[in-house]
What we know:
Blueprint: E1 2-5, H1 10-21, E2 28-30, H2 48-67, E3 73-82, H3 106-117, E4 124-136, E5 139-151, E6 169-171, E7 176-177, H4 183-189, H5 191-207
Parallel strand pairs: 1-2, 1-3
Antiparallel strand pairs: 3-4, 4-5, 5-6, 6-7
Amino acid sequence: MILWFATNNKHKKDELQSCINKYLQDIIVKIPSDEDIVFDPQETGSDFCENSLLKARELHTLLFKKRNICDPVLADDSGLCVDALDGKPGVLSARYGFTDGKKIESGRQNLMLLDELGDNPNRSARFVCAMTFLYSFSRFIIAQETIEGEIVTKDKIKGEGGFGYDPIFYVPQKKVTLAEISTEEKNKISHRGKAVKIICKHLCQCKK
Length: 208
Protein backbone atom coordinates (compact mmCIF):
# COMPACT_ATOMS: atom_id res chain seq x y z
CA MET A 1 0.00 0.00 0.00
CA ILE A 2 1.31 3.43 -0.97
CA LEU A 3 0.68 6.22 1.52
CA TRP A 4 1.38 9.72 0.28
CA PHE A 5 2.70 12.13 2.88
CA ALA A 6 1.95 15.81 2.26
CA THR A 7 5.37 17.26 2.98
CA ASN A 8 8.60 18.29 1.28
CA ASN A 9 10.61 17.42 4.40
CA LYS A 10 12.62 14.22 3.90
CA HIS A 11 13.42 14.07 7.63
CA LYS A 12 9.69 13.93 8.37
CA LYS A 13 9.24 11.23 5.73
CA ASP A 14 11.94 9.03 7.26
CA GLU A 15 10.57 9.59 10.76
CA LEU A 16 7.04 8.74 9.63
CA GLN A 17 8.16 5.57 7.83
CA SER A 18 9.98 4.46 10.97
CA CYS A 19 6.90 5.15 13.10
CA ILE A 20 4.52 3.30 10.79
CA ASN A 21 6.81 0.26 10.51
CA LYS A 22 6.25 -0.39 14.22
CA TYR A 23 2.59 -1.14 13.54
CA LEU A 24 2.22 -1.92 9.83
CA GLN A 25 4.82 -3.54 7.58
CA ASP A 26 3.09 -3.28 4.21
CA ILE A 27 2.94 0.53 3.84
CA ILE A 28 5.42 2.51 1.74
CA VAL A 29 5.53 6.23 2.41
CA LYS A 30 6.04 8.56 -0.53
CA ILE A 31 6.32 12.33 -0.67
CA PRO A 32 5.63 14.51 -3.74
CA SER A 33 9.31 15.08 -4.56
CA ASP A 34 9.80 11.30 -4.91
CA GLU A 35 7.85 11.61 -8.17
CA ASP A 36 9.02 15.13 -9.10
CA ILE A 37 5.64 16.58 -8.13
CA VAL A 38 5.70 20.24 -7.10
CA PHE A 39 3.82 20.65 -3.83
CA ASP A 40 3.71 24.09 -2.26
CA PRO A 41 0.59 24.46 -0.09
CA GLN A 42 -0.38 27.81 1.40
CA GLU A 43 -0.78 27.07 5.11
CA THR A 44 -3.55 29.55 5.84
CA GLY A 45 -5.26 27.64 8.65
CA SER A 46 -5.69 29.21 12.07
CA ASP A 47 -4.54 26.10 13.91
CA PHE A 48 -2.67 22.83 13.39
CA CYS A 49 -5.80 20.81 12.54
CA GLU A 50 -6.91 23.22 9.82
CA ASN A 51 -3.47 23.28 8.22
CA SER A 52 -3.15 19.51 8.36
CA LEU A 53 -6.49 18.99 6.60
CA LEU A 54 -5.70 21.74 4.09
CA LYS A 55 -2.42 20.07 3.10
CA ALA A 56 -3.99 16.62 2.85
CA ARG A 57 -6.76 17.87 0.57
CA GLU A 58 -4.38 19.84 -1.62
CA LEU A 59 -2.08 16.86 -2.21
CA HIS A 60 -5.07 14.55 -2.78
CA THR A 61 -6.40 16.91 -5.47
CA LEU A 62 -2.95 17.39 -7.01
CA LEU A 63 -2.25 13.65 -7.26
CA PHE A 64 -5.57 12.99 -8.97
CA LYS A 65 -5.26 15.87 -11.45
CA LYS A 66 -1.61 15.28 -12.34
CA ARG A 67 -1.29 11.48 -12.16
CA ASN A 68 -4.82 10.12 -11.73
CA ILE A 69 -3.68 8.71 -8.38
CA CYS A 70 -6.32 8.00 -5.72
CA ASP A 71 -4.09 6.58 -2.97
CA PRO A 72 -4.78 7.74 0.60
CA VAL A 73 -2.94 10.82 1.84
CA LEU A 74 -1.46 11.59 5.22
CA ALA A 75 -0.63 15.12 6.29
CA ASP A 76 0.61 16.63 9.49
CA ASP A 77 0.98 20.13 10.76
CA SER A 78 3.23 20.42 13.73
CA GLY A 79 5.10 23.04 15.64
CA LEU A 80 6.57 24.29 18.86
CA CYS A 81 4.41 26.28 21.28
CA VAL A 82 6.26 28.23 23.97
CA ASP A 83 4.11 29.40 26.86
CA ALA A 84 6.14 32.51 27.68
CA LEU A 85 5.86 33.60 24.02
CA ASP A 86 2.06 33.29 24.03
CA GLY A 87 2.24 30.00 22.13
CA LYS A 88 4.66 31.18 19.46
CA PRO A 89 6.01 30.14 17.04
CA GLY A 90 3.04 27.74 16.86
CA VAL A 91 1.64 27.21 13.36
CA LEU A 92 4.42 29.45 12.05
CA SER A 93 7.18 27.20 13.44
CA ALA A 94 8.56 26.21 10.03
CA ARG A 95 8.42 29.82 8.83
CA TYR A 96 9.76 31.39 12.01
CA GLY A 97 12.38 34.01 11.19
CA PHE A 98 11.71 34.03 7.44
CA THR A 99 14.00 36.50 5.67
CA ASP A 100 12.71 37.99 2.42
CA GLY A 101 10.18 35.18 2.30
CA LYS A 102 12.87 32.50 2.52
CA LYS A 103 13.36 29.93 5.26
CA ILE A 104 16.48 30.24 7.38
CA GLU A 105 18.35 27.16 8.60
CA SER A 106 17.13 25.57 11.81
CA GLY A 107 20.20 26.47 13.89
CA ARG A 108 19.51 30.16 13.35
CA GLN A 109 15.82 29.65 14.12
CA ASN A 110 16.75 28.05 17.42
CA LEU A 111 19.02 30.93 18.39
CA MET A 112 16.39 33.49 17.41
CA LEU A 113 13.83 31.77 19.60
CA LEU A 114 16.25 31.64 22.54
CA ASP A 115 17.01 35.34 22.10
CA GLU A 116 13.29 36.15 22.05
CA LEU A 117 12.72 34.09 25.18
CA GLY A 118 15.74 35.64 26.90
CA ASP A 119 16.16 34.85 30.59
CA ASN A 120 12.45 34.35 31.21
CA PRO A 121 12.20 31.74 34.00
CA ASN A 122 9.11 30.18 32.41
CA ARG A 123 10.61 27.72 29.94
CA SER A 124 7.58 25.41 29.53
CA ALA A 125 6.70 24.42 25.98
CA ARG A 126 5.22 21.65 23.91
CA PHE A 127 5.43 20.19 20.46
CA VAL A 128 2.01 19.73 18.84
CA CYS A 129 1.17 17.49 15.91
CA ALA A 130 -2.19 17.33 14.14
CA MET A 131 -2.25 14.45 11.67
CA THR A 132 -4.90 13.90 9.01
CA PHE A 133 -5.51 10.58 7.26
CA LEU A 134 -7.52 11.34 4.12
CA TYR A 135 -9.46 8.65 2.25
CA SER A 136 -11.21 11.17 -0.01
CA PHE A 137 -11.78 14.91 -0.05
CA SER A 138 -14.65 14.66 2.46
CA ARG A 139 -13.72 11.46 4.31
CA PHE A 140 -10.90 11.72 6.83
CA ILE A 141 -9.82 11.39 10.45
CA ILE A 142 -7.62 13.75 12.45
CA ALA A 143 -5.48 12.90 15.49
CA GLN A 144 -3.75 15.58 17.56
CA GLU A 145 -1.04 14.82 20.13
CA THR A 146 1.60 16.69 22.13
CA ILE A 147 4.83 16.20 24.03
CA GLU A 148 5.49 18.45 27.00
CA GLY A 149 8.92 19.84 27.78
CA GLU A 150 11.07 22.88 28.40
CA ILE A 151 13.21 25.22 26.33
CA VAL A 152 16.87 25.09 27.30
CA THR A 153 19.24 28.03 27.61
CA LYS A 154 21.95 28.59 24.99
CA ASP A 155 24.60 26.78 27.04
CA LYS A 156 22.42 23.65 27.19
CA ILE A 157 21.79 23.15 23.45
CA LYS A 158 22.61 19.49 22.86
CA GLY A 159 22.26 16.63 20.43
CA GLU A 160 22.93 15.81 16.80
CA GLY A 161 19.81 13.76 16.14
CA GLY A 162 16.33 14.80 15.12
CA PHE A 163 15.80 18.08 13.32
CA GLY A 164 14.34 21.53 13.73
CA TYR A 165 13.88 22.63 17.34
CA ASP A 166 14.86 19.25 18.84
CA PRO A 167 18.26 20.42 20.23
CA ILE A 168 16.62 23.14 22.36
CA PHE A 169 13.65 21.05 23.58
CA TYR A 170 14.37 19.34 26.90
CA VAL A 171 12.26 16.32 27.89
CA PRO A 172 12.19 16.07 31.72
CA GLN A 173 11.07 12.42 31.73
CA LYS A 174 14.17 11.47 29.74
CA LYS A 175 16.51 14.14 31.16
CA VAL A 176 17.79 14.90 27.64
CA THR A 177 16.83 17.02 24.64
CA LEU A 178 14.88 15.40 21.81
CA ALA A 179 18.03 15.61 19.69
CA GLU A 180 19.92 13.38 22.14
CA ILE A 181 17.70 10.32 21.90
CA SER A 182 17.47 7.65 19.22
CA THR A 183 14.82 7.76 16.52
CA GLU A 184 13.20 4.67 18.04
CA GLU A 185 12.92 6.29 21.47
CA LYS A 186 11.75 9.56 20.01
CA ASN A 187 8.95 7.83 18.12
CA LYS A 188 7.64 6.37 21.38
CA ILE A 189 7.20 9.72 23.12
CA SER A 190 7.01 12.40 20.44
CA HIS A 191 3.94 14.31 19.34
CA ARG A 192 4.23 12.85 15.83
CA GLY A 193 4.91 9.31 17.06
CA LYS A 194 1.80 9.34 19.27
CA ALA A 195 -0.37 10.75 16.47
CA VAL A 196 0.90 8.07 14.06
CA LYS A 197 0.03 5.39 16.63
CA ILE A 198 -3.60 6.56 16.67
CA ILE A 199 -3.77 6.61 12.86
CA CYS A 200 -2.20 3.16 12.57
CA LYS A 201 -4.63 1.69 15.12
CA HIS A 202 -7.43 3.02 12.98
CA LEU A 203 -5.92 1.47 9.84
CA CYS A 204 -5.49 -1.89 11.59
CA GLN A 205 -9.16 -1.88 12.58
CA CYS A 206 -10.14 -1.04 9.00
CA LYS A 207 -8.17 -4.04 7.72
CA LYS A 208 -10.05 -6.48 9.94
